[in-house]
Amino acid sequence: MLRVIGLLLLIPLFDAVLLVALATGVLFPVSPLVIVALVVLTALVGMLLVRAEGRATLRKIQQKLAQGEVPTDELVDGGLLIAAGAFFLTPGLVTDFVGLLLAIPFTRYPIRAATNRWIVRPYIDAKTGGFASGQVYIGGFPDEGQGGMGAGQGPDGGSRPSGGSGSGFDPDEATDVDFEDSDR
Question: How would you label 36-74 residue by residue, b for 16+ Cβ within 10 Å and e otherwise?
């Protein structure tokens, strides 16, 4: 998570460096008025693109919901379009380029796949213990028969004493409770 925040902080830094390099003529001589016009124009065109893509994504979400399907990809697309809009509103050429990558459908699809794989799925697995994605451990105790603490083993790996001195459940010390005779 800190890497993502660091990357998001580096983007405006690259933007400022690029704008200063263009304004001073280090890369190639460009009038400051042309730079300002370019930044404003890319932001306006980008916002129009985000608006059109947002409407198309909303239409896809409504169609999926009408068919009774879950619009998971469309919701991630909506989030990416919101991020694209934020990048377009931030003045600069680098942020407009990142916003353009998030707004155009054929570049948004690989970004959506990466977002699903490295952000959405791990988050859902962490919140549900793996039940949402099917990554759940089934079949006995973990590490049973592999040198770990399985059934009948103590903390040192040896057999657990049955005198109740272990920290787990001891069936010899268990008592039965009869709930039918408890009203006497």
Answer: eeebeebbeebbebbeebbeebeeebeebeeeeeebebb
CA atoms within 13 A on the CB side of 135: 11
Convert the pLDDT of each residue in 120-140 to its tens digit. 998 988 888 878 777 766 666
Angle among Cα 166, 172, 173 to the nearest 5 degrees reads 70
How far apart are alpha carbons 75 and 60 in whole angstroms? 10
Whether 81 and 54 have beta carbons less than 8 Å apart is answered as yes
pTM for the predicted model, two decimal places:
0.70
Please report where in the chains the tokens 């001073």 appear, as a residue.
Answer: 24
Output phi, psi for 153, to 5 deg: -115, 145
Query: Do residues 114 and 136 make contact, with C-beta atoms less than 8 angstroms apart?
Result: no
